[in-house]
């Protein structure tokens, strides 16, 4: 199963809720940077995680493990499964790698165990694992509200290159939300972004992109601001941090400029990627 990363083209936080989560309004889209999940039937009643990445837990803390466990419990499955995860998405990066692994596991086990669940049902189960999992179940492009689990599909943005750069730090999403001061943030125009995407207006998408969590992470890690500056200087059409960070992405349409940004950033950053913005749901088929 393919488990692609997401970026947030717009991310607003409306208020803190009584359950500790924050009410959000965001636009998320799928990009062509994906982990690979392989599911193999086990005839012993266990869930085994195989991953050769030292940042990825191989026990019940793994979101893919939690996905399998939930399905086993809900549907009384007595078989086991070995879940092999080949990571390409950097960990704790704001790209929903773990959430996408969980979503791919849900989609895959639905087939392997012939559960016959719809994507809507899988997304509902995914919400029990994490706020970003429902979006990852569908992929594509969507407005996410609630704590992120309510999904409204919208068309794909015009295609472009996405250059990503992740400094050598991992960010805790909970920490970033905790340190957000809603009195002092500049709220992005999420409705404007949705309109721009529907109009396929690339320039407007670039000018309206915004993320309220960016200022929090920039304060904690000045290297994120440096990467933003460099990406702008090398000629990206827009530059923004994804999710709670620390990954910074830039959109660019011209191949030659994509190469300039990619090569320029590789001197500063170990993790640099240049991939296509996908934004379509059939990418997962
Ligand atoms: C910021 C975003 C933007 O897409 O992505 P990432 O940076 O993680 O990729 C998401 O809101 C992250 O979603 P996800 O990573 O699934 O979060 P969860 O596991 O549900 O929650 C982790 C913690 O973040 C905080 N949290 C999360 C979502 C939300 N709407 N409000 C919150 O306050 C809570 O403290 C929660 O305990
Ligand atoms: N399958 C997984 N892949 C990556 N990280 C995972 C996975 N399962 C659990 N985690 C844990 O979740 C944390 C957040 O990881 P990730 O989903 O990559 O980041 P983000 O929420 O910023 O997009 C990591 O620190 C890691 O310990």
What do these coordinates show?
With 285 residues, the chain is α+β, with helices and mostly antiparallel strands. The protein folds into two domains: 2-153, Ribosomal Protein S5, domain 2 (2-Layer Sandwich); 161-283, Alpha-Beta Plaits (2-Layer Sandwich). It is 34% helix and 28% strand. It contains ten helices and eleven strands. Strands 1, 2, 3, 4, 5, 6 and 8 form a seven-stranded mixed β-sheet that branches. Strands 9-10-7-11 form a four-stranded antiparallel β-sheet, covered by helices on one side. A hairpin with a 6-residue loop joins strand 9 (238-241) and strand 10 (248-252). Helix 6 packs antiparallel against helix 7 and helix 8 packs across helix 9 (222-233). It is globular and about 55 Å long. The mean pLDDT is 96. Residues 56-57, 61-64, 85, 91-99, 101, 170, 173, 243-244 line the site of adenosine-5'-diphosphate (ADP).
Quick description:
It is an enzyme of class 2 (transferase). 34% of the residues lie in helices and 28% in strands.
Secondary-structure arrangement, i.e. CATH architecture of the largest domain: 2-Layer Sandwich
Amount of helix: 25-40%
Rounded mean pLDDT score: 96
Q: What small ligands are held by the chains?
A: 4-diphosphocytidyl-2-C-methyl-D-erythritol 2-phosphate, adenosine-5'-diphosphate
For this structure, what is the CATH class of the largest domain? Alpha Beta
Query: How many H/I helical runs?
Result: 10
């Amino acid at each position: 199963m393919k488990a692609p990363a997401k970026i947030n083209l717009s991310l607003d936080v409306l208020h803190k809720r009584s359950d500790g989560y924050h009410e959000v309004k965001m636009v998320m889209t799928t990009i062509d940077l994906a982990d690979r999940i392989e599911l193999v039937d086990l005839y012993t009643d266990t869930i085994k995680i195989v991953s050769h990445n030292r940042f990825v837990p191989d026990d019940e803390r793994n979101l893919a493990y939690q996905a399998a466990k939930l399905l086993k419990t809900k549907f009384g499955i007595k078989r086991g499964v070995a879940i092999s995860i080949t990571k390409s998405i950097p960990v704790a990066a704001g790209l929903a790698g773990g959430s996408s692994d969980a979503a791919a596991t849900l989609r895959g086990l639905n087939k392997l165990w012939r559960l016959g669940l719809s994507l809507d049902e899988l997304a509902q189960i995914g919400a029990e694992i994490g706020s970003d999992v429902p979006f990852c179940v569908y992929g594509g492009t969507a407005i996410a509200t609630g704590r992120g689990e309510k999904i409204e599909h919208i068309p794909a943005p015009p295609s472009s290159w996405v250059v990503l750069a992740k400094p050598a730090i991992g960010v805790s999403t909970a920490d970033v939300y905790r340190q957000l001061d809603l009195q002092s943030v500049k709220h992005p125009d999420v409705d404007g972004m949705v309109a721009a995407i529907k109009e396929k207006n690339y320039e407007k998408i670039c000018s309206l992109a915004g993320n309220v969590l960016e200022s929090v992470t920039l304060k904690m890690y000045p290297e994120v601001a440096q990467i933003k500056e460099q990406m702008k200087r090398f000629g990206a059409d827009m530059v923004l941090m994804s999710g709670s960070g620390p990954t910074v992405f830039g959109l660019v349409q011209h191949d030659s400029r994509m190469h300039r940004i990619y090569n320029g950033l590789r001197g500063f950053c170990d993790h640099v990627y240049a991939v296509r913005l996908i934004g379509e749901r059939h990418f997962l088929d």
